[in-house]
TrEMBL record:
Name recorded for this polypeptide: Sugar ABC transporter substrate-binding protein
GO-annotated cellular components: cell outer membrane; pore complex
Domain SLBB, chain residue ranges per copy: 111-190
NCBIfam families associated with the record: pepcterm_export (TIGR03027)
Origin superkingdom: Bacteria
Length: 195
C-alpha cells in the first residue's frame, strides 16, 4: 500500500519518462510461475486414484493424495510435476506425473496491476503477449477524469523503471502504435486530469 502511494506521489510530480518500448524483450523467454490462488490439475499416469485437482493455498503449498505438503509457489508446472513424482516415488514405482494450471491468479510478480483512473482498478493475471489495450479492456477503460496520455508503466522487471504511455491516443484516436506490450509485475498508473 505504501509502495503504491509512493508511486502515485511520484507520478503527481509531473516528471517525464521515456516512451514504453512497443515490444517487451523479456516476454519472449517467459515461463509462468505458479502462485497462491491458482488451481492445479495433477494427473498420475495409470494411477487415477492419485490424480487430483488442487488449489494452491495462500502459503504457496499444495496437498494431494500421498503428498502432504509441497511448495508450488514460484515454480513452473513442470517443476511441480517432478516434485510430485519424487514424493510419490516412495509409494509408486516410477510415477509419471503431469501438472496443468487450470485457473490462473499468480503471485504479485505474475500479475499486471492497473491503478488510478481506470473504471475498475485491479490486479490481472499476466498472459504472454499481453498489451496495454488488453489491460484497459479488462479494467473497463478510462474514467471521464483520466489523463490517459500522462499514464505511466512502472516495470518491476527493469528495477521499477518508468515509461510513459499514450492511452488517450490509443483509446480515443485509435493510434495502435501506442499499444505496447506489458510484462509480469508491471503497474499501469493512470492519473487524474485536473480540467
Amino acid at each position: 500500500m505504501l509502495a503504491a502511494a509512493a508511486i502515485l506521489a511520484g507520478c503527481a510530480s509531473g516528471g517525464s519518462y521515456p516512451p514504453a518500448p512497443p515490444t517487451a524483450s523479456a516476454a519472449a523467454s517467459y515461463n509462468y510461475l505458479v502462485g497462491p490462488g491458482d488451481t492445479l490439475s495433477i494427473s498420475v499416469w495409470r494411477n487415477p486414484e492419485l490424480s487430483a485437482v488442487v488449489p494452491v493455498r495462500p502459503d504457496g503449498k499444495v496437498s494431494a493424495p500421498l503428498v502432504d505438503e509441497l511448495l508450488a509457489q514460484g515454480k513452473t508446472s513442470q517443476e511441480i510435476a517432478r516434485d510430485v513424482e519424487k514424493a510419490l516415488g516412495k509409494y509408486v514405482r516410477d510415477p509419471v506425473v503431469t501438472v496443468i494450471v487450470t485457473n490462473f491468479v499468480g503471485s504479485h510478480s505474475e500479475q499486471v496491476r492497473v491503478v488510478g483512473e481506470a473504471v475498475k482498478p485491479q490486479a490481472l493475471p499476466f498472459r504472454h503477449k499481453m498489451t496495454v489495450m488488453d489491460v484497459l479492456i479488462a479494467s473497463g477503460g478510462l474514467t471521464e477524469f483520466a489523463s490517459g496520455n500522462k499514464a505511466t508503466i512502472v516495470r518491476a522487471a527493469e528495477g521499477n523503471k518508468r515509461y510513459s504511455v499514450r492511452l488517450d491516443d490509443l483509446v480515443k484516436r485509435g493510434d495502435i502504435s501506442a499499444n505496447v506490450e506489458m510484462l509480469p509485475g508491471d503497474v499501469l498508473i493512470i492519473p487524474q486530469g485536473w480540467f
